[in-house]
Design brief:
Layout lengths: L6 H24 L1 H6 L9 H26 L1 H4 L1 H23 L3 H22 L4 H28 L4 H5 L2
């Protein structure tokens, strides 16, 4: 298949991918004081790193899904990989309101483990359609695994906090 890029479609796919994270940012900003009060591990990255890394990852995820859509024959031809992508995005977007909005450290840990599994599945189902798309998912998978490690450490370090502090806005 000849390499062709439909830039308008690529941008139309990336914008909603990033859009879900923008909604999540509302929960982050509203609960930053709560987050700052938590005991975090020494390997917790600086605040600025999260926005930078997630923006880059959302753009590459959108690009990978575009490649699968293009080379897989659209939604009809690539229904399985694009459905896995949809589930993955839903899990990705769910984590922020669960962790930041509801202060559910344990449940967000369970949820991010499901995100790990769906991200691995995403790379696996993308690869046969477009190998570049499969490889593009690897940095996302590594970051999500790192986020899982952070979530676990934050849960472990804060599980004995009084309920009022855990849920204080």
């Amino acid at each position: 298949m000849a390499w062709r890029m439909n830039w308008a479609l690529l941008i139309a796919i990336i914008i909603p991918t990033i859009g879900g994270s923008i909604i999540g940012e509302v929960f982050v900003k509203k609960n930053m004081a709560w987050y700052e009060s938590l005991k975090k591990p020494k390997y917790n990255p600086p605040k600025w790193a999260f926005a930078f890394v997630w923006t880059a990852l959302y753009c590459t995820m959108g690009h990978a899904s575009y490649l699968v859509w293009r080379d897989g024959g659209g939604f009809e031809g690539a229904a399985l990989p694009l459905s896995v992508y949809g589930v993955n995005l839903a899990l990705n977007w769910l984590w922020t309101p669960l962790f930041f909005g509801m202060h559910q450290l344990k449940w967000s840990l369970y949820e991010v483990v499901m995100l790990d599994a769906s991200t691995a599945a995403l790379g696996i189902v993308f690869y046969p359609v477009n190998s570049v798309a499969g490889y593009i998912i690897i940095p996302y998978f590594v970051w999500v695994c790192y986020a899982t490690l952070l979530n676990y450490a934050i849960y472990r370090n804060n599980k004995d906090l009084p309920e009022k502090i855990k849920n204080d806005n």
